Structures are given as structure tokens and as C-alpha cells.
TrEMBL record, chains A, B:
Transcription found in the keyword field: no
CDD domains in the cross-refs: CBS_pair_Mg_transporter
Compartments, as annotated in UniProt: Cell membrane; Membrane
Native species: Labilithrix luteola
Signal peptide: none
Membrane topology field: Multi-pass membrane protein
UniProt KW keywords: CBS domain, Cell membrane, Magnesium, Membrane, Metal-binding, Transmembrane, Transmembrane helix, Transport
Record-given protein name: Magnesium transporter MgtE
Main location group: membrane
Length: 439, 439
């Protein structure tokens, strides 16, 4: 690594693959102008790591560079002992703010908000408000945004909001109570961050005030924080859909042991579930012994159920996460997925039928009863695909009804569920269709 | 539906499940105060639908309510004939803006930007700039944000940016060239929206200027547009990971035929791939006939490979989408996933070993050679899980190297790939371990 010529962009690019020593060296090699922006642009866990790796005497200016909500995030990422040390480095005022923020769950509105917003009084004039904003801008102390100012009453309750544009567009002698917007959308401090993101996205807001149970305003969540939330929640959902626990850190920064732990749990659970296929198969051992040809289609049939189930569960989970589908829609979805499943099953059944008959004509692969075998496979496919589609679409509803995250209804989970029932469907169809011939 | 008592929140809630007529009735039942916000809060495709469903004489005020970038989005969602009609309803100036925006791909920076931003000159004083902003605020014509103003030279090139806060904090007689930030991050007009989101998220920006190939500023993309982009891109990736084409519309608003089309393509392709398992199995037909017990573990073994592959591919695809992992990291990832795969394989192998030996002790399920069968299954599990993990992690690299979207390396795709090779591994291990006994 040539440290001399490193720009902040270069460092950002190679950051994930550097060792701790290299990171610190790279960090110190940046110019003074670059290093502040670079530090502010890091994720909270990277900031915590940089602080951890630098000599403790150097930490103070860096932690003080952060806004209170970002400093709180860094403290969340640090060990309890480090957290105490870091908080002690803050000035009195920031320390109180950070401690208040740390009392919230990291993924609640309260954990996401900044306590630094502009407060105005309803009986101020527009001119007085502009003067006040100007003083805030010139003061050293930073607020999260100057674009919106919140008009609070004596009990800190939100009476209205004015944007900088509203102030500029209004005559200077009007009262804020006359020019403010009174319909303010707020979120409670314990609202989950995913729901906050939903509110902000739905109403196209740039910021939303956070209020406590008595309606007092505690802070604001701005839309730029929401971008991170949306990305993070999507990552968690995607990882759960892939059949594992969500990683808490970027892939390359997750230790190999932590990663194996996150993956082994679900993999073992799915394996235990999948063992039922061995039991199901041994129940039909005699049939297989009599007609080995039946065994040949087992992977094809159960995977078709798994794949169609994976499609259905993925669609429903994402629609739930986006608020497009709620628990009350389940019956509509059963009907839709029943049609979809039957249609998809019929398509695969036709392909399967053609494949078996063509192979038989060309290579005589499947013996004297190939037509019946083709019929058994095709019929089973219709059943298995329809069943996979229905179970895949309903599993997220059941899991959510039980109070868990529907994203746990991962594609592998559905596939495992459908494998066992797929075998039962297949062998029962085969018993009926092949009775008196092979079985 | 009781239309009398409907609020905009209620309507928003039930919107996805309403018929076209109910939507229009609901829309008209809102009060004048509510209906504007409600319309502006709809997605572009819903706005297009509302416009389509209302009598054409009523459309003009609604399309004119939209910002040019939003009006362009609505036109994108309309049919070419409707598009012409809608554009004709705009005033001269907006029509030019919308036509310019429609020339860009919908998912490029140019298609996402607003052409309405505040332009300043470097030789203006701070006071003059504030007066100009105030006039902009009071003018009827709206700009996307007044918070940032862009300082352009005579060729419309970005020389700097000032925030409203900078202006307020600076003495009134200073020139903008002295107070502006000269390090402006810009994005090219043809940059993909996912990359624009990445730039905005990485640098924690509230807005980013879009420039053409000669560096002339064409518009700005603001962070609130990015929230929608991030959600939409995550949805597309999740649907592809579920083994289907991405839907273009919300689940409940997608017609049943369109949905079957989106799902049938991949499902059929996977089915054709999975047919290779029938060929692979028939290659080992003789072994199965001699030792039917081997067939019992086929679903267990191939699904373990599929599940571990699904985990690996999901992790890598998401890390790629977030820019945490690039093509050049492939060798690092092979090494990581090799260790992870061996460890996970060993865990499943131990569970499998215990299961077979315990069942044998309790029920004598697996006959005289149960120990060897257990050994064959366990050894195969190590091989299949390791192979599944490696192929699952490398497939996104291969697909991306070929120039396709790595998210197409869906969990079902990987499972299908691994199923065939899993069978080959299993039967070959069994041939070696059971030689001279069962086989």
C-alpha cells in the first residue's frame, strides 16, 4: 500500500479489505482537509473501530466531531467498557444528549433521531424567526437541519412546522401561528425504524418529529438517516430470505466464526426438518424397490415444489415489508396463488410429460410403463407446484400471526417444508396411477 | 365502502385492494384540502392510473400539480398515446422540461433529477444571494429545494455549492466565490440510479448535482427520491433472489397473467435444469436397485447443498449490491467460503451421523451396513455442503463477469446447479464406502 499518494476516495475503496494496522496508517496518511470528511463518511461500526484502534489520547477530537445521534450510534457499536470511555470524552451537554439517546433501542425512532432541531414559538413574528435562524447558523453549535423549524407550545408539544421557504415567502410581521402548517405528521419515540421509514417514504417527508407518549417533541429523524435504514432493513430481509440470521456487519468485516454461527443455526434446523424426507422415503421403500424408476424423479419433483414455493414466499414477504399486503389480505392471496400455482404446475407438467415421452421414444429409458410414469410425474407436478405455491404464500402470514418476522419464512425454509409433502403427494399419486402395473 | 366518512389515511390504506371505479369514487370523496396531498403521495403508477380513469377534461389541474420530474415519471407509466395527451396538458415551460427528462432512461440519474434548482453566480454577494433566494421563495414557480444553491459559471459548469446555512452564517458583503464549497460531488446524467443512491448514501448528501458529458449542470437528485430508489432496487433484487423476474408493479396490482409470465420463465428454466437430476439418477439406477436405502437420503443430501449454496449466494449478492465486495475480491471469498463450507458441512455431517446411528439402534431402519451408510452420508454431506457453498458464492461473480445482474444467481438457481453435482458426489462417495458390502 503506497500511503503517500492515497486520497480519501482511494482509502474508502480499499477500506473493507485492510487490516487494522493498515486502516490506521491509511487514516493518518490523509490530509487534514480530507480526514474529517472521511471519518464522517464511515459507518458507525467503522468509526467505532477507528476510535478503538487509535491511541486513547487522540480520540477526543474525533468523537466530538460527531453529531449526538451519530456519537450515540458509535457508542452502541462499542463494548460497554469502551462506551463509558467514549462518553466521558464528550462535553457536558453532548454527554447528556448521547446518554438520553442510548436509552432508546438502536432501531427505534428514538435511537435514530437527532435531539438538535430548531424550536420556535407560535407568537414569534416571521422576521424574529429569521433573525433567530440566522443566529443559529452563525453559532458554533450545529443543528441537524435549519430547513425546518418546529413551533412548540409551552409543554414542548408540536403546534406546527415552518420551512425556511415558508418564512422567506411570508411578510415579516406575520406571526408564526398564522403561517405555520398545523397538520404535522409525527412518530412516537418507540416506533420501529422500518415503520418510520414507511411514514417518511409514504408522505415524501424530508424530516419527521419524534414525540414521547405525552406528545412532547424529543427530536427529528431526517430522510438521509432513512436511506441507511432502508438499505440496512433490506439487507437483513435478504439475508433472512437466504436462510440464515442477518449479519450485523458487512460481509468482509464479519469474522469467520461469527459468520459460521449465523449460518449454522438455520442450516442445522433445516437439516433436521429435511430429515423427515428420509423418514417419508423409507415409508415408501417398498415401492421404490419395486419401481426404481420412481426414485429418479424425486429430486425433480421436490425441487419444483421448492422453487415455486420460494417465488411465492419471496413475493409475499416483500409485499408485506413494503406495506402492500397485510394480514387481512390472506384470503385474496390464497385465491390468486391458487390460480398461479395451478397454471405454473400445468406448465411444468407439460414440459415434464414431453421430456419423458421424448426420452422414451429416443432411448427407451423408462421401460414398458413409460406412459403411466409420465402421467404420474405430470399429475404430481401439478399437485406439488400448487401446494408449494400455496404454502409458500401462506407461511409468511402464519409466521407474522405468531408474532415473528415474516422474513424468516425463507426460501430454504419453504423448500424444506414442501419437500416432505411433495414426496407424500408424489408417491400417493404414483400408487394410484401405477396400481396393477409397476406397483 | 362508506365514502362519506373516508379520510385520506383510510383511502391510502385500502387503495391497493380497490377496483378502478372504487378508487375514482374514493378519490372524489376526499375534501379539497386532503385530495391534493393524497394525489401527490401516490406512486407514479397510481397517479397515472388515477389520471387515466378520470374524464379527460379534469386531468389538466392534476398533471400540472406535479413537479416536472414527477410528471415525467407519470408519463413513463402511461401508454405512448396517453403520454402525448398528458404532455399536451402542461404549460409550455413544463412541457419542455418534461420532454427533456423523458429523453433519459427512467432509472438513470437524468430520469431521476429535477431540472428546478437554484442557480447563483460566483461574483454575487451573500446579501444579493439571500435576496434572490427570497424572491424565489415568493415566486409562484417552485424549485425542488431552496436549501442548496449551486454556483455556476458562464458555461453552466458547477463551481461550488452553498447551503442556506452557509449564506446565513457569512457576512453579507462577501462574494459567493469566497464562501462556497468548491469540492462538489456530481454524478453524470447517465449514471444508474443504484449508483446515484450509493454516492448519496456514502457521502451523506441531501442532494447531488447531475452534469452532462461536458460538465454542464442539468439538475439535482435529492435524497427523498433516493429512498424510493433504494426500496425499489431492493425489491427487484429480492424478487430475483426468489427465482423470478422482478415485477414492475406492487404485488396486488400485478395482473394474474403478468405474474404467471414473470414466474413461469425462471420456473421452467430451473425445471429444465433440474431434469439433469433425473438423468444423473438414472445413471446410478443399478446402485439404487441394489441398495434402495441409498435413495432415502437423496432429498436430504441435495437440499443441504442447496441450502448452504443459497446462504452463500445471498450474502455475496447483497454485499455486491452494497459495494462491499467487488470482482477483484473473488479469491478472498473463495478462501473464506471454503472454510465456512467445510465447517458447516462438518456440523451437518455430525448431526446426520448421530441421526442414522440412533435410528439404527432404536428401530434397525438401515439394515446390516448402517455404519457404512452413515459414513457415506456424512462424508457426502461435507462434500456437498462445501461444494454448495463455493458454487453459491462464485456464481454471482461469474454472472457479473459475463455482464449480467448478479442477483439472477437466485437461491433456486444455485440449488438446481448444486442438486446435480450433489447427486454425483453422493453416489460416488457411496460407491467407494459401500464397495464390497451393499454395492
Amino acid at each position: 500500500m503506497s500511503e503517500e499518494s492515497l486520497t480519501d476516495e482511494d482509502l474508502r475503496e480499499i477500506w473493507p479489505v485492510l487490516s487494522a494496522d493498515e486502516r490506521l496508517a491509511g487514516f493518518h496518511s490523509l490530509s487534514r482537509a480530507e480526514v474529517h470528511d472521511f471519518f464522517l463518511g464511515l459507518s458507525a461500526s467503522d468509526q467505532a473501530q477507528v476510535l478503538r484502534e487509535m491511541p486513547s489520547a487522540e480520540r477526543r477530537p474525533w468523537i466530538r466531531l460527531l453529531e449526538p445521534d451519530d456519537a450515540a450510534d458509535v457508542c452502541q457499536k462499542a463494548s460497554p467498557a469502551e462506551r463509558e470511555e467514549l462518553i466521558a470524552l464528550l462535553d457536558e451537554h453532548a454527554r447528556r444528549e448521547v446518554n438520553a439517546l442510548l436509552a432508546y433501542a438502536e432501531d427505534a425512532a428514538g435511537g435514530l433521531m437527532s435531539p438538535r432541531f430548531v424550536r420556535l414559538r407560535p407568537d414569534m413574528t416571521v422576521d424574529a424567526a429569521i433573525r433567530y435562524l440566522r443566529r443559529q447558523a452563525q453559532a458554533q453549535r450545529r443543528v441537524e437541519t435549519l430547513y425546518y423549524a418546529y413551533v412548540l407550545d409551552g409543554e414542548q408539544r408540536v403546534r406546527g412546522v415552518v420551512s425556511f421557504r415558508d418564512l422567506f415567502a411570508s411578510p415579516g410581521d406575520r406571526l408564526l401561528s398564522e403561517v405555520m402548517h398545523e397538520q404535522v405528521i409525527t412518530v412516537p419515540e418507540d416506533m420501529d425504524q422500518e415503520a418510520v421509514a414507511e411514514v417518511i417514504a409514504r408522505h415524501d417527508l424530508n424530516a419527521v418529529p419524534v414525540v414521547d407518549s405525552e406528545g412532547r417533541m424529543k427530536g427529528i429523524v431526517t430522510v438521509d438517516d432513512i436511506v441507511d435504514v432502508v438499505r440496512q432493513e433490506a439487507t437483513e430481509d435478504i439475508q433472512k430470505l437466504g436462510g440464515m440470521e442477518a449479519l450485523d456487519t458487512p460481509y468482509l468485516q464479519t469474522g469467520i466464526l461469527a459468520m459460521i454461527r449465523k449460518r449454522a443455526g438455520w442450516l442445522s434446523a433445516l437439516f433436521l426438518g429435511e430429515m423427515l424426507t428420509a423418514s417419508a422415503m423409507s415409508y415408501y421403500e417398498e415401492e421404490i424397490a419395486r419401481a426404481v424408476v420412481l426414485a429418479l424423479f424425486v429430486p425433480l419433483i421436490i425441487s419444483s415444489g421448492g422453487n415455486s414455493g420460494s417465488q411465492a414466499t419471496t413475493l409475499i414477504i416483500r409485499a408485506m415489508a413494503l406495506g402492500e399486503v397485510g394480514l387481512r389480505d390472506w384470503w385474496r392471496i390464497v385465491r390468486r396463488e391458487l390460480s398461479a400455482g395451478l397454471a405454473l404446475g400445468a406448465i411444468l407438467a407439460s414440459i415434464g410429460l414431453v421430456r419423458i415421452l421424448v426420452w422414451q421414444a429416443l432411448f427407451h429409458t423408462y421401460g414398458a410403463h413409460s406412459a403411466r410414469i409420465a402421467a404420474a410425474v405430470s399429475l404430481s407436478l401439478v399437485g406439488v407446484v400448487t401446494w408449494g405455491t400455496i404454502s409458500g404464500s401462506m407461511l409468511p402470514f402464519i409466521i407474522r400471526r405468531l408474532g415473528f418476522d415474516p422474513a424468516s419464512a425463507s426460501a430454504p425454509f419453504v423448500a424444506t417444508l414442501v419437500d416432505v409433502s411433495g414426496l407424500v403427494i408424489y408417491f400417493n399419486v404414483a400408487q394410484v396411477v401405477l396400481r396393477g402395473t409397476l406397483l
